[in-house]
């Protein structure tokens, strides 16, 4: 079976995957940004310890899900794995990556933004209660 990534379409899919990954941030996203900048190679991804740790943790979750499936479903998934990979490469190669990257960057920014501190609503008559107020809090 030919490798679906050993083609022009496969290379477009690889570049799209790296752009999507870079937009998500984290160790894998940082590594993907290095690949896109030409400082690293995509095949080094799983040799990069922080990325490997993320991958192993996520893979354990997938293994548990797959192991919980009935044997017939696991056999069907195994039989369809290659065609599924080819389909995913095709989808990545034709994806409108700019829109997807913008969406991912927006989500990553929301995830990284610190949540505003929660304050309980105060009634007007609580102005004289200084015990729970910071001395820097405006009046």
What does this molecule look like?
It is a single chain. The protein is an all-alpha fold and 139 residues long. 63% of the residues lie in helices and 0% in strands. It contains 5 helices and no strands. The chain has helices at 8-24, 26-36, 49-68, 71-94, 97-112. Helix 1 (8-24) packs parallel to helix 5. It is globular. 12% of the residues are buried. The mean pLDDT is 82.
List the helices and strands and how they pair.
Blueprint: H1 8-24, H2 26-36, H3 49-68, H4 71-94, H5 97-112
Helix pairs in contact: 1-2, 1-4, 1-5
Helix content: 55-70%
Count the beta strands.
Answer: 0
H/E order of the elements?
Answer: HHHHH
Sheet with the most strands, sense and barrel status = none
Mean pLDDT over the residues? 82
Distance between the termini: 72 Å
Helix tally equals 5
Kindly provide the radius of gyration, computed on alpha-carbon positions and rounded to a whole number of angstroms: 23 Å
Strand content: under 5%
Structure classification: mainly alpha
Net shape: globular
Residue stretches low in confidence (pLDDT < 50, at least 5 long) are none
């Amino acid at each position: 079976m030919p490798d679906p990534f050993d083609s022009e379409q496969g290379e477009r899919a690889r570049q799209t995957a790296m752009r999507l990954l870079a937009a998500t941030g984290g160790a894998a996203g940082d590594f993907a940004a290095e690949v896109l900048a030409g400082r690293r190679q995509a095949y080094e991804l799983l040799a990069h310890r922080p990325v490997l740790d993320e991958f192993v943790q996520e893979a354990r979750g997938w293994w548990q899900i797959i192991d919980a499936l009935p044997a017939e479903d696991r056999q069907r998934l195994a039989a369809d794995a290659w065609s599924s990979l080819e389909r995913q490469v095709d989808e990545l190669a034709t994806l409108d990556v700019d829109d997807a990257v913008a969406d991912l960057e927006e989500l990553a920014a929301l995830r990284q933004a610190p949540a505003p501190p929660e304050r309980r609503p105060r009634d007007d008559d609580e102005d004289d209660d200084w015990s729970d107020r910071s001395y820097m809090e405006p009046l």
